[in-house]
Hints:
six-stranded parallel β-sheet; Rossmann fold
Amino acid sequence: MTRRENILLLATRDTVPLADKVAAELQIVCTPMVQKEFADGEIYHAFPCDISGRDILVIGSNYTDAAQQELIDIIAGSRYWNARSINVVIPYLGYSTMERAKPESGEIPKGVTRTRQIFRTRPDYVAFIDLHSEAILHAHAGDIRTRHIWTEELAVEKIKSMNLSNYVLVSPDYGFSKRVARLAGKLGCPHTAANKDRYDVDKTIVGQLSSAVKGRIAIICDDMIRTGGSMVQTADRCYEGGATDVMVMATHLVLAGDARKRFRERGIHRIIGADTFPGTTSDDFLEIYSVAPLISRELVHYLRIV
Length: 306
């Protein structure tokens, strides 16, 4: 059992808004770290109170090099100052698509190597949300409890709340089609998959798509939207196949560069996603649901909070 008053919830700088929502769900406070920046660019971190014997919760997405280092510093610092337990939730894992290297390529599989850096700081528990690949769960020596949290139920609730009718779920490739099939089963709607081939970094070709989209609203689903290249091509195939409208849905909305503009220009006016990537909020284009209730339920179950 973990006593609620013994928990100290911390967050990396850019993940504070989500951590505040989790804190509200858990009925505790997200306590800010003491931070300063020196003239030479070095960052000073200090815990705001004595953490010895405390159960530390850290929420942080390592979406930049600085965020990765900050997360590592907080975990390592918690170990240094004798925290009772260190429990980490990573809503968005940076470099998650780089979980393996091609033979003889010399590539660095940073999804694995950076996760190993986190594991080497010796947290007790690390949870990830909607991973691109579960390979990174095993990138440690076996003494850390890892957990993969799926957002399927939240996505289903969000789509149902939008009161759509006559829609079909579309996977942009066959690799993601099993998850799309599970979502479709929960929603009681049809699903199909496009044929995608990757020929370079951030470059793909999306080929044929079945006629299941004809006369329906197509909702293209994926784990993340980075540049949106494959989704834009899939949207083109949906309209060519007779879809009446096209939406896209992904957990992690990176939306790098001019992704938003590209979507709008191709007739996509609604993107559904979670608040896992720092800075993601609802607006006239984004329909966002929060993963805070999901994280809260997971932590209550794992830590047996009383």
